[in-house]
Every structure is written in structure tokens, then in C-alpha cells.
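Lecture 7 notes. Example A: sequence first, then its C-alpha cells.
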Amino acid sequence: MGLKHSYTLIAPFYDLVVAKATHAIRKTSLQQIQQLSRHGDKILITGIGTGLDIPHLPADRFYTGIDLTPGMLNKAARRKGAVNITLQLGDAMNLPYEGASFDLIVMHLILAVVPDPQLALREAQRVVKTRGHILILDKFLKPGQLALLRRLANPITRHIATQTTVVFEHLLEECKSLAKVEDEPVLAGGWFRRIVLQKTKD
């Protein structure tokens, strides 16, 4: 089952499963927008899904939210409120934007979902401006962590909803322009992490 197809089926139930569990950690992550960007900055949200991030966004920036699934975007559109956000159908692994187009990028629960998380992070590196930031919230194994149950589940879950064996450090190794600024465990015994990156060079 392809990602677009599976999330089309999941869209009507997504909020019931995810909203309450991630509300607090989303809010904490998105508070960084006030500190790391300025009034009028352009911010990209990759994999915006049903728009659970939207209520936590400062209203004085210009946002673009991209997602692969029309059903998810339809639900996100109902959450727009006063936030200046453009919603667009698109792929986090092949972003339809010029390089250095955004001052900040939000990647919440997307790197462990896409088939190629390395490519998705490289695309974010490409379209964020130098000295801009990337806010990441997702589940990652630690380097060398056994996590046998997660590894056994991954061949099934990766085709339905999410990968369970992504190691963030391996992704970052291939993105030479990105430096880790913050890395904090936030949920499920540290499986979920809140990470802040900065692009340090072109």
C-alpha cells in the first residue's frame, strides 16, 4: 500500500489517534518559532497532515503547508482560522520550491513516515535559508539501539503509517550544512525527540 493511499484511509481517524497524544509536545516545539524567526518570515510546514500544528502558529508569519494527501489537506483547511497559510499538495521528498526559499521549516512526524527520510531532510536543507532553522518532532532510535519489537514491527508499519527504526544521527551525517542546536527526549521514554537544526552554510 502506498503512502498516499494509506493516509487517505487514515485521514478520517488521524486526529482521534494523534491529536491528544501530541498536543503538548507540538506546542512546545512550535514555541521556538517566536524565538528563531521574525515578523513576516516565510515558514514551511512539511507533512502538515490535518493541520494539528496550525492552532499553535504565531499569526504574524507567512506559512506554507504541504502534504501528499488531499484528505489531510481538506481537514487542515478547516483549521486555518486567522493564520496566513497556503496549503499545497506536494511531496516532502521532492519539494516544489527554489533553494533557500524559507526562513524556517517545521517537520513534525514526517521523517519517520516518508519512504526516504534521508531525501526529505536533504530537501529541507536545500530550501531553508542559511542561518535558518528546522524544527523536528518525531520518533527515532538511538544509534546502536536494539529495540527488537520496533524492528520486527517495521516491515509492516512502514507500509501502513510510519517507520519505527529511523536513526536520526544517520540522516544528519549526510546533511553537511545542518548543525544540531537542540535535542530533547519528549515522549515514550525518549523514542520521540524534539530537535532543532540550523543551516550553517550554503
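Example B, a different protein, same format:
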Amino acid sequence: MLKGYFKKMRGITKSPPAVNLSEIIWSWCGAFLGIAAVALISYKVLEGKGLTMIIGSFGASAVLIYGAIKSPLAQPRNLLGGHFFSAIIGVTSYQLFQPQIWLASAFAVATAIAFMHATKTLHPPGGATALIAVIGGESVHKLGYLYAIIPTAVGASIMLAVALIVNNIPKTRRYPEFWL
């Protein structure tokens, strides 16, 4: 019985093939422009106003929406819904369990995953968005539920706009695969 359990960990398929240079360049361009857009707004427009436009989970979103554009996890519904719902769950978790940050953290991520599954908005960076709402420090905690709008929803929307433009420039790329 235990042998069968460990046998499952061997995997069943080979590693995916390498990507061509064009795909690498377009992924780089999209990621550069998407992160540059939210970072520029964050550091040049919102700085000193108690707001931010960039959070760590956007780095992981960039990998998906610019580098894995055909993945169901990279589609607009998943990007926007996954981040937005996870932000709300993260803020709620912090408010409910804040004296126990370990509990708030675990509850936020686990509940975000379950909710994203239930709503067909699974976006792995959403788990980080929920966790950031809990461990992000005073500047994030002061935002409260505004965190779900700025930086989360607005920042993800800016990155989506860049993805729609950049990912559709080359004839070999098409984004999105689906909206709803």
C-alpha cells in the first residue's frame, strides 16, 4: 500500500518541450511592459498617498499571462476573479483571526483556493494575494477591503490590458483562449 503511494510520485509524462526564441522574447516583452505599467503607477503616481499598485503576486501572474498564455489558469476570468476574490478572503481572514497570524494565513490561502475552485477562477497567484492581505504589514492592513480594488483589481486589469495588446501582436500568439 505504501509502495503504491510513493509510486504515484514518479510522474506519468515527460517534461514539456522547450519554447522557441520568439515565444521567449514576446513573454519577456509582455512581462516587462505589464510590470512596468503597474510599478510606474505605484511609484510615480500613488507614492505618498498611502496606496500601492504593485504586489508580489503580480510577478507570478506575469509568468502565466505572458509566458503561459494558453493555460486555463492564465485566462482573464481566472486572473481577475482569482486575485479579486482572494484579496477579499485575505482581508476577511486577517480581520477575523489577526491575533493569530499563522491561523489567518492558513485560512486565507486554503479558503481562497477552495473559492477559486468553486467559482472556476483558479489562478495560483491568487493564493499569494490572499496571503499578502494577511502578512503584508501595516500599509496593506490599513487599506482594508480597498486592497481588493487597489492594488489588486486595478493592477490585474492593467496587466490584462497589456496582455491583450502584446500577446496578440505576433501571428503565432492569441490571447485569451476564453473570457467566461
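Note on Example B: The first helix runs from residue 2 to 7. Residues 117 and 123 are 9 Å apart (CA to CA).
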